[in-house]
Amino acid sequence: MKTFLLLISVLTVLSSRAAFDDWFFPTTLRVDYYHSGDASSESYSIDEVLQEPFWGGSRTNLVDKFEMGEYLFKAFDEATNTLIYSRGYSSLFAEWQFTEEAKFTKRSFSESVVMPFPKNNIRIEFYSRDKKGKYDKVFEYKVDVKSYFINDQLRMVYPSYNSLIGGDAFNHVDIVILPEGYTLEEMDKF
Question: How many CB atoms neighbour CB 136 within 10 A?
Answer without folding.
Answer: 11
